[in-house]
Amino acid sequence: MPKNERRRFLQLSGIVALAGCSQQPGAKVDEEKLPSALGKPIRAYGERSQFETAKRAVPDLKRPQIGSTRTPLAETEGIITPSSLHFERHHAGVPDLDPSKHTLLLHGLVERPLVFTVADLKRLPSASHIYFVECAGNSGGEWKAPGGPNVAASFGLASCSEWTGVPLKILLEEAGVKPAGKWLVAEGADACKMSRSLPIEKALEDCLVAYAQNGEAIRPEQGYPLRLVVPGYEGNVNVKWLRQIKIVDQPNQTKDETSKYTDLLADGTARQFTFVMDAKSVITYPSGGQKLAGPGFQEIRGLAWSGRGVIEKVEVSTDGGTTWTKAALQEPRLPKAFTRFRLPWKWDGKETEITARAADSAGYTQPSREELTEARGANSQYHYNGVKMWKIGADGSVKNA
Amino acid sequence: MRSLLVVFVLGVCAFGQKYNVGRAASADEIKATDQFMAPDGTGLPAGKGTAADGRDIYSRRCARCHGAQGQGDEEGPLVGGKGSLKTAKPLKTVGSFWPYATTIYDYVHRAMPFDNPGLLDANQTYSVVALILHMNGIIGERDEMNAQTLPKVKMPNRDGFVKDNRPDTGKKKK
Fold this sequence. Notes:
The complex is a heterodimer of chains A (401) and B (174).
Chain A: H1 3-19, E1 67-69, E2 88-90, E3 103-108, E4 114-117, H2 118-123, E5 127-134, H3 151-155, E6 158-167, H4 168-175, E7 183-188, E8 195-199, H5 200-205, E9 208-213, E10 216-217, E11 227-229, E12 242-248, E13 263-264, E14 270-272, E15 280-285, E16 296-305, E17 311-317, E18 325-326, E19 328-329, E20 339-347, E21 352-360, H6 369-376, E22 389-392, E23 398-400
Parallel strand pairs in A: 3-12
Antiparallel strand pairs in A: 1-2, 3-4, 5-6, 6-9, 7-8, 7-12, 9-10, 9-11, 13-14, 15-16, 16-20, 17-18, 17-21, 19-20, 21-22, 22-23
Chain B: H1 2-11, E1 23-24, H2 27-33, E2 48-49, H3 51-61, H4 63-66, H5 102-111, H6 122-135, E3 145-146, E4 161-163
């Protein structure tokens, strides 16, 4: 048998073994009536099928301009989040900016303060990279109790896109950063002029001034027409509607790096400038709110990511954390991007708990909730990355454990 | 060799710039756009105000959301929470948590009142900032806040912040 065929045979026999050789009754569906009439005409901008319903989880808010929507990660496949489902977090609503009038001012401790139009930025050398963006507050509810009922509720403030733009390093070199320039402050054009400070080393390392997301212009709620993309760092520093960057000698201590996005510890002190998002993973199937059709073959699927590099390993436990099995990782595994993991599994129809933990190229393994709260207490609010357990009932229902 | 040549040609296009894309920013447009403020007082505008001056504007423009005494109403409180940071129910406010007084000016100036940011002029902003500090027992009712005095206000939780010292978790499992 040729090598490829032999491998396929082995895989197939594995599945048969999983299924225990007994064919299960398949679900019956209504007969499909193929249309004989002509279909819809061509159209200029596509839409998904009327039968698809995945949508962002939108909370009921007193002021819908300040709040967040969550990506239904359990209803996405692969590693790219459709732009239409990318989570939102706004502090003063979504501005409607005209790209022909929008500019980026770069000034402060530089030799040559510069103004770039959006067209200028598109003329400069460009780069495309797939990066996740995760709000520091993602999974924040789990600090007090692991209560999130489904993936969107406890992990949905994370999404992953291909971002295209000009490397910030190029702009900084054009302006010529003076030796005293150790930080920058970036400001958005939203009503609250959201602003954050960032160390200059990171700006020179891998930040992008992005104008495109997943092949088209950035969506308004993601910062149209310009967004600062800061790979692996908490979402809030990925300043949307970017309008100015000032090079400074000290962080500006803005509201969103003092009052918010600082991590309160058990001793009452708070960590500040905790930029990097640590390794994290979640099983998206089977996950909270879903129902298994019956015992037998299941492909356990999930997502893992780390702000410190590449996902090296994801282990899955189907017995509540007693034993662990390595999941297959979909290539290419990209730094600071989602990685899809999968594990074939035969569910015996009995109640159990399933969970996953990720390890990254920096040698870091995702901690348990106990390990996290022991180190930090339960008041941190931000940067929760403990493992998440799902409980499968004998009836196939999946709930938060 | 070819690419080196290209870089060289680009490199001589403009003084110090490789691509010569974008234009020089004028001092005026920088001044009009730059509203950043640093904790050492850099960027604070001229103007002044006391807590007493701030009562009127606060009651008309802030109290609805943050409460007449800053205790919180439709939105979160601006006072209180002292001594709560170590407890199971920490209350983080300007008084109990914020490390720098300049941040209050910067934030109110850029973002408040929430539904009408930019409404207050410099004197009004110094005045409500003074009032918030006073309601938290940090300054007196007649203490004047301006570009010189505000950076010198020592916030109660000034020393409550530490650097990122992760990883504090995540050692390899067997």
